[in-house]
Amino acid sequence: MAGCIHKVPSKQLVLIRHAKSVFPVGVDDHDRPLSERGVVDAAAVGQWLGTSGLLEREIAVTVSSARRTQESWELIRGEHVELTARAEPRLYGASPDTIRALITSTPLVVEVLVLIAHNPGLEDLALSIASNRKSTAFLELTRKFPTSGIAIFEVNDWANVAEGNALLTEFLVPRG
Question: Which CATH number fits domain 11-20+30-172: 3.40.50.880, 3.40.50.10330, 3.30.470.20, 3.40.50.1240?
Fold first, then answer.
């Protein structure tokens, strides 16, 4: 069709900070479990995911190997989402550059990439890649990226996610 412009569908990058955890004495940071509030909030993130429409697209989920992120994913996924997440040890304590490297290596067929990880790397990455720095979502993100926080970005191509080139479409913090 002459004169038609084919719009490449955007991809969604969903950055989720793990739910609230506890600090038991004698337990290594990597093995910290969720708190009671974290369990409730992770379920609220799952309710959001179930109604977001993202599950209807080609989706990949990558989760830090830490216990609190793995428990968060299991509660987010719930009994109704038949998605298997890939555990990624490099996300534990990851820098923004490490997280970006994982994003840029995502296969092109993936339409939605969900990453569940930790601060400060997750927050630093979100702040650096956002292109719309005067938006309400960005201003909320600059205040804090709390546990169970979700930053959703539109990107054109995984391989080109870089500083200032992802559209932050929403920032929310579901609570149970």
Answer: 3.40.50.1240
Distance CA 122, CA 141 (A): 11
pTM exceeds 0.70: yes
The model's pLDDT over 122-171, given as tens digits with 9 standing for 90+, comes to: 999 999 999 999 999 999 999 999 999 999 999 999 999 999 999 999 99
> Of 104, 105, 112, 118, nearest to 152 (Cα)?
112
Tell me: the pLDDT tens digits for 78-120? Answer: 876 788 899 999 999 999 999 999 999 999 999 999 999 999 9
| Residue 125 to residue 172: CA distance in whole angstroms | 16
**What does the DSSP 8-state code read for residue 43?**
H
Give the helix ranges, DSSP H, for 78-148: 96-104, 121-129, 136-143
